[in-house]
Write a structure and sequence with these properties.
One of its GO terms (molecular function) is diphosphomevalonate decarboxylase activity. By secondary structure, the protein is an alpha+beta fold. The protein is 39% helix and 22% strand. The chain binds (3R)-3-hydroxy-3-methyl-5-(phosphonooxy)pentanoic acid.
Length: 347
Amino acid sequence: MTVYTASTTAPVNIATLKYWGKRDANLNLPTNSSISVTLAQDDLRTLTSAATSESFEKDTLWLNGKEESLTNKRTQDCLQDLRGLRNQLESQDASLPKMSQWRLHIVSENNFPTAAGLASSAAGFAALVVAVAKLYKLPQDMSELSRIARKGSGSACRSLFGGYVAWEMGEAEDGLDSMAVQVLPQEAWPEMKAAILVVSDVKKDTPSTQGMQLTVATSDLFKERITSIVPKRFVEMKEAIENRDFPRFAEMTMKDSNSFHATCLDSYPPIFYINDTSKKVIRLVHSINAFFNETIVAYTFDAGPNAVLYYLEKNEEKLFAFLYKLLHQVKGWEPKYNKEQLNGFIN
Ligand code: PMV
């Protein structure tokens, strides 16, 4: 019995203009458009292989070496859409193997600790959708496939592209216009780098779907955010990226992270994702920018306390000198630069 296989990798993306709020929880349709930067493939990524054969008895998923259920609704929604598209191909060409009727075996592996509180579901669903689409030889482009990944996890739709990515919220009730598009490929602004400060590796206490529902239902600030703040920022952040304007991009990234966490605090009962250590990182970043009298680094926080810092490669030494000064006793923060280099920036 023939076994057909296909593999792909999908990177993690970190939003710089946050998606927070669903107008349709079933289809994962957002209340605002969002923007992200996709991390480099060798940094944080999911590697997924999909196989199908007439002889397979059930859909099975192995996640980081452990067998997991493939019955969860979000995964099944994605697989159903992919099988539907494959079925269309099979009805146009009778010589194609009837893969749409067969079961799937999926093996997925992250190259980073899943428990580190980093956005693993985005890379996971993106890789799942692209691997099965490849296996089925679907003609759909990445934006079209991003609509399917979106149903798995909203932010996953942005991981189908590298570089700088926008998720356009769309207006349609069926979600056909709610998909990701590339703003700029990574090569067009390759100097951007990200550093992730793992503040805590415990699982977040309020899952994002639950948190979003609570914010939408109870926060007054949230209404202001989605009507007058984010639509303008969406246009301006895309412009800053297109113009490779780091200080502008960085300022909007920090303001948007703060705005998102403010709506979490304004939810009732409030949701706290950032902790005291996160706040120290925020202060530190503002001190670094004030010290250099220039915005050289931006922070952003997702639904958890871990910080992602964005900076340009040319400023890495300056930034790491400061971080080292603060964190040198922490394991993993052994100096990357020698004392003379560090002393040029700090004492
Ligand atoms: O895609 P989800 O349901 O995991 O939600 C992601 C929400 C944030 O990470 C906080 C923001 C974003 O745009 O990625």
